[in-house]
Amino acid sequence: MKSIREQASDAEQNAELGPGNDERFSGYGVMGLPFSSGHVLAMRRFPVNSVGPGYTSVWLRRPSGAWSIYADATPEQSCARYFGSALESAVQCPVTVAWTGDSSVSVTIGRELELAWHVDLASTPITRAMTLVMSALPAPLLESTGFLKSMSVAAGPMLGAGRLGLAGDVPNGQGFRAKPRQMWFISGSSATVGGEDLGTMRPLTRQTRLGDFWIPQRGIFVIGASSFDTYDAGRHLPASTRRAA
C-alpha cells in the first residue's frame, strides 16, 4: 500500500481537471486545524487549476478572528479570488511544502509571516471508510450541491469535526463545491507564527467559517478537487477588497 506521501506525490504529478466550464482546482491540503492559542491554520496545494498556474496557500486565522491568506500566486489567481472580501490581508509570497516522512509534512513561510508548521497524519477506520466511499462516488454526483450538502451534514458528526461545508457560497459570492476523494486525520501538529508557539491542537470554543465553508474542529487532510462558479464582475466581489501593504 502506498504511503500518504506517495499518494500526495501522485496527486501532485498526475493532477487533472475534470470536465466543466466552471473554475476547477485539483490537489490536496489541510482543510483546517484549530490550536489552543485560538489560531487556525489551513493549507491548499493545487498543482493544477483552470484560472492560473499551480499554487500553494496558507490560511491563518488569528485569535481576534481576523483571517489572512498567504499564497505564492496573485490574489486573483489563488484562494483570495473567492475569500478576499472576508480577509484582513491577502499576501503573495513564497510558501514551501516539504514531506519529511511517509506521513509527515512541513509548511514554511519566510519573513512575510515567519511560519513553521509541522503536521503528522494518520489513517483510522473512520478515514478509511470515508475514503472508500468518496473514491467510489461518480464524478457527476460530486457536482450536485444538494448531495454535497447532505454529505456534509452526515460526515461532520461522524468525523468529530463539528459542522462541515462541502457546498454553498464563499464570501466573494461564488458558489463552491468541495470534492474530497481521500482523507486522513492530523494526529499531531506543532506550529509557530512570528516565533509564537500556537500550542496544542484544540477545537475552538466557537467554530469558525468563511462564508458557507466551515473550518473543521479537528485537523483533516484530504486529496481531491474543488470547483467554483465562474467569476462574474456583475455578481461577485473582486479577489481582495483589503490587502496588505
Please sum up the structure shown.
This protein is α+β, with helices and mostly antiparallel strands. It has helices spanning 4-13, 80-83, 125-136, 145-159, and strands spanning 23-34, 40-49, 55-61, 67-71, 89-92, 95-101, 104-109, 115-122, 167-169, 175-193, 196-197, 209-210, 213-214, 220-228. Strands 1, 2, 3, 4, 5, 6, 7, 8, 9, 10, 11 and 14 form a twelve-stranded mixed beta sheet that branches.
List low-pLDDT spans. none
Which structural class best describes the helix and strand composition?
alpha+beta
Q: Termini separation (Å)?
A: 47 Å
The number of helices is: 4
Helix content: 10-25%
Shape: globular
Please indicate the percent range of residues in DSSP E strands (runs of 2 or more).
35-45%
Q: Give the biggest sheet.
A: 12 strands, mixed
Mean pLDDT: 95
Radius of gyration: 17 Å
SSE pattern: HEEEEHEEEEHHEEEEEE
Number of strands: 14
List keywords for this structure.
245 residues, alpha+beta, 17% helix
Overall description:
This protein is of the alpha+beta class and about 240 residues long. Helices cover about 15% and strands about 40% of the residues. The protein has helices at about 5-15, 80-85, 125-135, 145-160, and strands at about 25-35, 40-50, 55-60, 65-70, 90, 95-100, 105-110, 115-120, 165-170, 175-195, 195, 210, 215, 220-230. The strands form two sheets. Strands 1, 2, 3, 4, 5, 6, 7, 8, 9, 10, 11 and 14 form a twelve-stranded mixed sheet that branches. A two-stranded antiparallel sheet has the order 12-13. The model has no long low-confidence stretch (mean pLDDT about 95).
